[in-house]
Amino acid sequence: MKYILGIDVGTSNVKAVLFDEFGQEAGVASQESKTLNGAGNQVEQDMLTVWEKVKYCVKTVAESGVARKDDIIGVGVTGQGEGCWLIDDEGNPVQNAILWCDGRAVNEVGEITNDHPEIGRLYHTTTGTPPLLGNQMMLLKWMKENRKETLDKASKLIFCKDWIRYKMTGEIKTEITDSLTSLIDVHSGKIAENLMEAMGIAEYRSYLPNPVRSDEVVGTILDSFADEVGLRRGLPVIAGALDTSATAVGLGAIHEKDVCVILGTTCASEIVMKKEDCAFGAENSRYEKHPLGDLYVELQPTLNGTPNIDWMLENIATTRDFNEIDRIVDSVPVGCGGVVYHPYISVAGERAPFYHPYARASFFGISQVTTREQMIRAVYEGISLSIRDCLMNVDKSGTIFLAGGGAKSPVWAQMIADVVGMKVMIPAGKELGAKGVALMVGVAQGLYKNYDEAVEKACTFRQVYEPNLTNTKKYDLIYELYKRVRIHNQEIWDYRHQMNKKIRAIGEEDE
């Protein structure tokens, strides 16, 4: 039996997963990865701490006895995308990593979007992604304008998985799925130098490695790393992929019109499509590269997914038992008695399917007869309605492949099927991002002759949920209310932000 090591460096957890050639998870090790929250909306991670956690997980799996060293054929790394991971000439971090969910670049995004809309338009049509807070291009601009001295100490700007792969191999590389989040001209496939010039950051072009294919072998693990963690020397490592793109492969979404939804910290909804069908620069659109060939994904990755559930468990529910939560949710009729929840709980606002840095979560329709149970269900419905909001243009005759921590709940999976009006399939296994890069390794190393064979051999499903069309009709009406309130609130969110600034100023005057 041959095995492949997949590493997933997420925002909340770091995992190393050993897969057999049939896609089964033969061994898993996980470590919690803490974020460092600074003033206001700043979110960072210590790069060296993240690396130590990866080493621990790899060592745990490698020394578990599940597989012999010689039976492991390669390594793939996936992880959180975007953000700002800076290293110097010696390969050392010059600061903490700024994460994808960080909101500090709000003024820079506002300047490009509002004050210089021609640059904002160029940004969107060039990269396929509008200017957003966590984009690496925007954070590079923020660094120049706010921490230039630190920025000038660096020599390379990479992504999370690239940092981990560099520490394993000594090779500084990046690849197309991460780079296309904001750095690549989608028409030429090269770094968008004209955009960097327009944004005033062209002097840092040398910081950006030219991207390679996701499944390209870019090096082998260092002998020192192999000996430390218990792997064989010379083990090949592929470039890897952005977590959302890798998960699409791990789910088996490798063909045009496949749809997948990842219920995690970010709730990412993806539609696989060919390049010629992409409307780069269209309103509310965001495109990223699929790891395979000429495929792309129309991606709507909200800033706000399961953290809404975490907040609800902390502040509304009286239990943290998810079986009991499922029972509560299932006991409440569709619509929660007219209560609608908008799940924009991130301090950085929201980015999909609309951008607003000051968006905030809220309950609409609460009255004196509203119950705790209705509010709990409303949170689940709100996230599900957000998914529908992100998939507004999807062909509903298709199937949603559902992954992420939230996919463990059968009640929530059925709710999503009802809300969107599409069949939902739940994959066997849990670590779909790590599985995606593992399948890429398998193809690159000849374990599978192509991706169709890899998916046929290694991707299976444990549950299928058909939509209850009666409930779908109800959700059609609820969604209209959800969307109307969301659109109406945008002006109110702006007012709230300005109000808070004035309130703080009053306090400063009193001092």
Topology:
Layout: E1 3-9, E2 13-20, E3 25-32, E4 36-37, E5 43-45, H1 47-62, E6 72-79, E7 85-87, E8 97-98, H2 106-115, H3 117-127, H4 136-146, H5 148-151, E9 156-158, H6 160-169, H7 176-179, H8 193-199, E10 217-220, H9 223-229, E11 236-238, E12 241-242, H10 243-251, E13 259-263, E14 267-274, E15 287-289, E16 295-301, H11 307-315, H12 322-331, E17 340-342, E18 362-364, H13 372-390, E19 399-403, H14 410-420, E20 423-427, H15 432-444, H16 451-458, E21 461-465, H17 469-510
The chain-level mean pLDDT equals: 95
- Biggest β-sheet: count, sense, barrel? 7 strands, mixed
Radius of gyration: 22 Å
User: Strand arrangement, largest sheet?
Assistant: 15-16-14-13-19-20-21
| Structural class computed from helices and strand pairing | alpha+beta
State the distance separating the first and last CA atoms: 71 Å
Number of strands: 21
Strand content is 15-25%
- Helix content percent band: 25-40%
Unreliable segments (pLDDT under 50, ≥5 consecutive)?
A: none
Note the overall shape: globular
Alpha plus pi helix count: 17
Characterise the protein shown here:
- The protein is α+β, with helices and mostly antiparallel strands.
- The chain is built from 17 helices and 21 strands.
- It has helices at 47-62, 106-115, 117-127, 136-146, 148-151, 160-169, 176-179, 193-199, 223-229, 243-251, 307-315, 322-331, 372-390, 410-420, 432-444, 451-458, 469-510, and strands at 3-9, 13-20, 25-32, 36-37, 43-45, 72-79, 85-87, 97-98, 156-158, 217-220, 236-238, 241-242, 259-263, 267-274, 287-289, 295-301, 340-342, 362-364, 399-403, 423-427, 461-465.
- The strands form six sheets. It has a seven-stranded mixed beta sheet, with helices on both faces. A five-stranded mixed beta sheet has the order 3-2-1-6-12, sandwiched between helices. A three-stranded antiparallel beta sheet has the order 4-5-8.
- α12 (322-331) crosses α13 and α15 (432-444) packs across α16 (451-458).
- The longest helix is centred in the C-terminal third of the chain and has 42 residues, at 469-510.
- The model has no long low-confidence stretch (mean pLDDT 95).
